[in-house]
Structure formats: structure tokens, C-alpha cells
Design goal:
about 400 residues, single chain, about 15% strand, binds pyridoxal-5'-phosphate, seven-stranded mixed sheet
Length: about 400
């Protein structure tokens, strides 16, 4: 039997798990270490570990709303193709999403389209740097400055990615990381806000100080799940976990009822320990991504994502585009049968997600870029457990399927 690969993930060693328990013995030293690592990876002076990336986004948007003197601005521009947690966090903060289409080759917010947006009620723009591939952040940042709106640099999937030698997450007014499953590091759930010193940081500090601490029972339950995750992420066991948990694994939903609390000491201790290894994990992801790029280049009908110039993506996953969509379904089926960790990613652009659609502001035309991505994307795994022959096997699987389909 061929071992099944997870679509994304971070190994968590017994030593790293033990750091969580050890952190409980000296919580303030453990927290100082986590803050230090967050500062080092982002270059931002301030960091606040919180219960999730969604919670981080909600808190940032709430703080920005309070700082807005006009108090008329209740819209947030978000990319038309991204994780559903982003519009959910906008709703949780009592704000309304306005979509900006994405560039179907780089996955970035389309900067020409952003320039043409109606900013009259816009509080902030959120960039997403999907799969750790930086959005066109320098351009997005200058558009936001010209328009006098805030920029939230969501680096949920991009801890360690850089563009023009600046860390993703450090652009604009505030940024965030996620420690969920499938992100650059995983503590099951968790995240962090980052910001430079200034008025935004002061308001964020107030918001975070009014939070409740993570419930002890909940954080222990998450810790036990993390132990199971660490074991079952291994290729020999992942297939079993997927059969037991089924669609729950890696399924993306629109949910606004998540907790808003600080990150528990247990989770924070593991996060600090994982951050010591994040550069190594990312380098290994980048190596696999480079090999996947070569393997896919040889297959007609498959194109790799084109990251912006001057960027260094970490590739939490490696996205490729397969067109037309009939060939894409065939390729996806073939890859999934071979258990090579391929995934269809988010199934729809946000204008076609009902929960988002009913809150959407602006007369949006069709999101052609987002639609093109949703109908052609396949993400491939890059994580530490990818075997050396993975690129070859993926290239073969794609070649067989696309070859078969074209010659028919
Ligand atoms: C995962 C993700 C989030 C939310 O992070 P959670 O920790 O899962 O709440 C936000 N934005 C993007 C782009 C993400 O991928």
C-alpha cells in the first residue's frame, strides 16, 4: 500500500510538545521567548499571541474601527479568492466585505483593480499571501497610503515569506500569523497579531488586554489533539486519520462563532519551540516546491503560480493551474487516487459563497480572476514528510492524465 500524504502540515516533535508542558512551569519566560521569535521573524516591535488567526483579524479590525475618526467607514476590501475565515472575521468585527479580484497567475490582489475601487467607505484592505506566496505588497501598501485606508497584512499562511527583503506580515498597519493546521507552524489552533510601535499598536494592546485568558480545559483538549496530529501527520498514518475524520480534515467553512482569547501557555510554549525550527521547515518546503515546479513544467496544460518579482515565497502548499476544467478534474482525481496529497483548495471565489454574498458591498461584476483560479487550481504538498520521489510521481500522474485526455 502506498502511504497517503497530507496536503500540508508541520512536523511536531516530542521535544517540541514537551516545551508546551515546560512553558506551564514558567509562563512569563515562555511568553517572552515567543514574543522574541515573533519579533525576529516579522521585524515588527510588537506581537500579541491570540487564540487563532481569525481572532487576530477580528481584533485588528476592531482596533482600526475604534481609531477611525470619521466612524463612517465600515467596509473592508478583501481578495475575491481566499480563505473563508477572512470574510467571517470581517463579519465578526461588525464590518462588510468589498471584493477586489485577484491576478490569476500570481494569486495576488489585482493592483490595477484595487486602484479603481470605491474607497469612500473603506476602512482597510486585507492582503492574504495565499500558500505563503507574497501578494504585491509594496504596491498595495502605497495604494492604501494614497487612499488613506489601513492595510492589514494577513500572513496566516506566510510566516517567513519575504518581498523586497521585508517580511510578509510587516506591511501596512498590522499583520497576523496563524498556527492552525496546514500553516507554516501548527499548534492545532492559535495565532498572533504583529505591529510596529505607534497608535495602532497602542489600540491593539488595549484590545488584547481586555481579552479573557484561554480556558484551561479547552487548551488542554487542543494540546491532546496536537499530540494526535503530530503522530498522524506521518505518511504511514495520515490515511488512517483521514478515513476516520473524513471531510472534517482540511475542510474550509464559514464560521463566525470562534473564541476570542489570548493564546494558552501550553500552545504558546509549543509555538515558541516550533518557531525555532520554522526556517528549516520553510527551506525544506522551498526545495520541494522548486522540484515540483520543474516536474510540472514538463506537462502540457499545467502552469505554476508566478510569484511577484522580488518575492521569496515559503510555499505552505505549491499551487498549479490546470486548464481546461475537464482536464483539471481528471488530474485531481488521478492525483487523489495516488494519495499524493493534492487538494482542490477553496472551491469558489467569495462572491459565490452565500454567507459572503449577502453581506457584500459594491456592485461587483463577476470576479473573473477568482473564478479562473477556483476552476483551475490544484495545490500540491511541500511539507517535511514529502518523499524525495514525490515530484517525479506527481509529474507522472499529471502527465498520464493530461496526456490521455489530450490524445483522446
Ligand atoms: C487560515 C487563514 C486565516 C485564519 O487563521 P485561523 O488560525 O485558521 O483562524 C486567515 N487568513 C488566511 C489567509 C488564512 O489562510
Amino acid at each position: 500500500m502506498i502511504a497517503e500524504l497530507a496536503p500540508a502540515g508541520t512536523p511536531v516533535t516530542a521535544r517540541q510538545l514537551a516545551q508546551g508542558l515546560r512553558a506551564s512551569l514558567s509562563p512569563s519566560a515562555a511568553k517572552a521567548q515567543l514574543l522574541h521569535s515573533l519579533n525576529a521573524v516579522s521585524g515588527a516591535e510588537h506581537a500579541w499571541p491570540v487564540s487563532s488567526g481569525r481572532a487576530a483579524m477580528t481584533l485588528i479590525l476592531t482596533a482600526l474601527r475604534k481609531l477611525d475618526r470619521s466612524s463612517q467607514r465600515d467596509e473592508v476590501i478583501i481578495p475575491a479568492y481566499t480563505c473563508y475565515s477572512v470574510p467571517a472575521a470581517v463579519e465578526r468585527a461588525g464590518l462588510f466585505p468589498r471584493l477586489c479580484d485577484v491576478d490569476p497567475q500570481s494569486l495576488s490582489i489585482d493592483t490595477d483593480e484595487l486602484r479603481r475601487s470605491d474607497f469612500s467607505r473603506v476602512l482597510a484592505v486585507v492582503s492574504c499571501s495565499l500558500y505563503g506566496i507574497p501578494d504585491e505588497l509594496p504596491a498595495i501598501e502605497s495604494i492604501c497610503r494614497e487612499q488613506g485606508v489601513y492595510l492589514v497584512d494577513d500572513a496566516a499562511q506566510g510566516m517567513g515569506s519575504r518581498i523586497n527583503d521585508r517580511a510578509v506580515g510587516s506591511f501596512g498597519d498590522a499583520g497576523l500569523y496563524s498556527f492552525d493546521k496546514g500553516k507554516a507552524i501548527s499548534t492545532m489552533q492559535g495565532g498572533a497579531i504583529i505591529a510596529r510601535a505607534g497608535p495602532v499598536a497602542e489600540m491593539l494592546d488595549r484590545e488584547v488586554h481586555s481579552l479573557e485568558n484561554a480556558a484551561a480545559f479547552h487548551s488542554f483538549a487542543l494540546y491532546l489533539q496536537l499530540v494526535a496530529y503530530a503522530i498522524f501527520l506521518r505518511p504511514g498514518l495520515y490515511g488512517m486519520a483521514r478515513r476516520v475524520l473524513g471531510r472534517q480534515l482540511g475542510h474550509t467553512t464559514y464560521d463566525t462563532r470562534y473564541p476570542l482569547s489570548t493564546l494558552s501557555t501550553l500552545q504558546g510554549g509549543v509555538a515558541a519551540s516550533l518557531m525555532e525550527a520554522v526556517e528549516r521547515y520553510n527551506q525544506s518546503r522551498q526545495r520541494v516546491a522548486a522540484q515540483l515546479a520543474l516536474a510540472c513544467e514538463r506537462v502540457a496544460g499545467v502552469s505554476a503560480c508566478r510569484p511577484p518579482l522580488g518575492s521569496t515565497p515559503i510555499y505552505t502548499r505549491f499551487p498549479v493551474f490546470v486548464r481546461p476544467s475537464s482536464l483539471r478534474s481528471c488530474a485531481l482525481k488521478r492525483l487523489q487516487e495516488s494519495r499524493l496529497g493534492a487538494s482542490a483548495s477553496y472551491p469558489r471565489p467569495l462572491d459565490q459563497v452565500p454567507e459572503v454574498g449577502r453581506r457584500l458591498r459594491g456592485r461587483n461584476g463577476p470576479m473573473t480572476g477568482g473564478q479562473a483560479v477556483a476552476s483551475s487550481i490544484i495545490t500540491l504538498p511541500t511539507h517535511f514528510y514529502c518523499p524525495p520521489d514525490l515530484p517525479k510521481r506527481i509529474g507522472q500522474a499529471l502527465g498520464e492524465c493530461l496526456g490521455d485526455a489530450t490524445s483522446r
